[in-house]
Amino acid sequence: MTTTIPTENLLSLAQTYGLPLFVYDTKVIDGQIQKLRSAFDVPRLEIRYASKAQNTISILRHIYNQGCGIDTVSPGEIVMALKAGIPSSVISFTPSGVITDEYAFAIEHGVHVHADQPYILEWLDQHYPGTAVTLRFNPAIRAGGHTKLQVGADGSKFGILSSQVKNIISLTKKLSLKITGVHMHLGSDISDSASFDEAYEYLLSVAQIWADTIDHVDLGGGFKIPYHPDDHSIDMISFGARVSERFNRFCADIGREITLVFEPGKFLLSAAGYLLMEVTNVRTEGSVPMVYVQSGFNHFLRPMNYGAYHHLINISNTNGEIQFYDVVGYLCETDTFALNRPISEIHQGDVLCLLNAGAYGYSMASTYNGRPRPAEVMINDGQATLIRRAETIDDLLRTDLGVNSE
Ligand SMILES: Cc1ncc(COP(=O)(O)O)c(C=O)c1O
């Protein structure tokens, strides 16, 4: 991990906007988009940012302005993308196991749909004959940084299983739908490019079946980025060269140039985000000093949900002596951010900065324990803008119809 953290700037944002606070730096997002683009040498490349990673409208708009489309998984995410001014022609919809009404919503809004279950294909044929559809396949390969993220593994709930392919072939022959693409998403935090190559080879073999009608192959997202200072990222250059070579051969085989699509979430957003939290207390009794912060897994779930490592920096005392701390949140559960973690000396009132907070941070945040969600600030061209205000307790009560009844 070689990121330079703008600590002075973050401290001043903490003072201006209060804590806890999410901050996103668009320079990092743009750099990641550029890194991805320059790694591939194919006639047509499309990046469809997986908006589940972070779907605040200003961020979506920024990413679209960098030339990317958006992948969504719900009507809510479709509306967020449309509100960002993103045309439906570059929005796709890749849900899982949803009611057909959601497909109707996507199609009525002009959004391209992905399907991975026969019931969806049959319903689309009946209600929207002739619709263009991308088929999502399950490559049956276990890859990804955590078992909960290995969504392309055999038997996972996602994608058409290899045992279903024959049925899907006869179904699509019978139905009026136009199969315009094939798709897979292996999982998240994937650095093992061998599993990716294997899955991709499988997808291309399936793509041959619909070679006459497809105009894109979508390889999903899941690229690993570093979390720990000694961690590594996927080697995008060699990965890109291999994928491009194989994809170009595929295009030559089918005699047409089609589009290669990726749906990265974490790769674009993770390192762009910081979560700033105030230290409320340092308990020195016990085997390891314990640092309490005014936040918790209601704001940032990944350490508790996936055991994810997120680096922590004391931006109030960056040059202090390194000591080991447990860092915990304020929720009434164990709520652990880090155990026995080396951090420069911490005092009550200091500001801790959690790194890689850009992806699956705010978008997974909740109001658990009756706690409003934090504000969000975006830094663009060195200019900080509040892009989402902090919630209030009134926001929490807004949908509760018991408020005014005795
Ligand atoms: C269909 C699909 N595409 C893309 C992604 C993005 O994955 P990542 O954020 O790991 O790149 C996901 C994440 O769950 C997904 O489900």
Automatic annotation (TrEMBL):
Residues 30-268 form the Orn/DAP/Arg decarboxylase 2 N-terminal domain. GO terms for molecular function: diaminopimelate decarboxylase activity; pyridoxal phosphate binding. Pathway: Amino-acid biosynthesis; L-lysine biosynthesis via DAP pathway; L-lysine from DL-2,6-diaminopimelate: step 1/1. Its cofactor is pyridoxal 5'-phosphate. Pyridoxal 5'-phosphate binds at residues 222, 360. SUPFAM superfamilies: Alanine racemase C-terminal domain-like, PLP-binding barrel. Its EC number is 4.1.1.20. It is an enzyme of class 4 (lyase). Belongs to the Orn/Lys/Arg decarboxylase class-II family. LysA subfamily. This is Diaminopimelate decarboxylase. It comes from Candidatus Opimibacter skivensis. The lineage of its organism: Bacteria, Pseudomonadati, Bacteroidota, Saprospiria, Saprospirales.
